Amino acid sequence: MWWLIGAVALGIPLVLTAMPEFGMLAVGAVAAAVTAGLGGGVAMQAVVFAVVSVALIAVVRPIAARHRAQRPELISGVEALKGRSAVVLERVDSSGGRIKLAGEVWSARPLDTEQSFEAGQEVDVVEIDGATAVVM
């Protein structure tokens, strides 16, 4: 019973501080409680608590740290439009034009001011400058 009380006591700082190590120690305490329930002695309970807790910290903590360090793969907003293909609706030249990008009509200008694209041509979006797509 004391191990289960200890597990709950370790769960409280886990929730308050969001430190996963407390959760791993709580799992070790539950494992020790199971050992006690199966008739293991106090020494065996302490060994099970230590082994399970250390094993979880040694294995799970590096994996969690790796996942925490990774940036999300989801790109949204204007960044998601860069590199996409679009269809020219109205001639695009240095004075502007219109394209259909991701189902929407955008104003556009070429990356190279000497270049122009005719209606129906497919272009690639290089960047978004305000409400204007820069294409090539």
Number of helices: 3
Strands, total number: 5
Largest sheet geometry: 5 strands, mixed, barrel
Rough outline: rod-shaped
Order of strands side by side in the largest beta sheet? 1-2-3-5-4
Report the average pLDDT across residues.
Answer: 90
Helix content: 40-55%
Kindly name the structural category: alpha+beta
Order of helices and strands: HHHEEEEE
- Portion in strands: 25-35%
Count of all domains: 2
Oligomer state equals single chain
The parts where pLDDT drops under 50 for at least 5 residues are: none
What is the C-alpha radius of gyration, as a whole number of Å?
A: 30 Å
Keywords: Membrane, Transmembrane, Transmembrane helix
Membrane topology: Multi-pass membrane protein
Subcellular location: Membrane
Main location: membrane
How would you portray this structure in words?
This protein is an alpha+beta fold. It has two domains: 2-69, no CATH class; 77-135, OB fold (Dihydrolipoamide Acetyltransferase, E2P). Helices cover 46% and strands 25% of the residues. It has helices at residues 2-17, 20-37, 42-69; strands spanning 85-93, 96-101, 104-110, 122-129, 132-135. It has a five-stranded mixed barrel with strand order 1-2-3-5-4. The model has no long low-confidence stretch (mean pLDDT 90).
Give the topology.
Blueprint: H1 2-17, H2 20-37, H3 42-69, E1 85-93, E2 96-101, E3 104-110, E4 122-129, E5 132-135
Parallel strand pairs: 3-5
Antiparallel strand pairs: 1-2, 1-4, 2-3, 4-5
Helix pairs in contact: 1-2, 2-3
Membrane topology: Multi-pass membrane protein
Keywords: Membrane, Transmembrane, Transmembrane helix
Protein name: Membrane protein
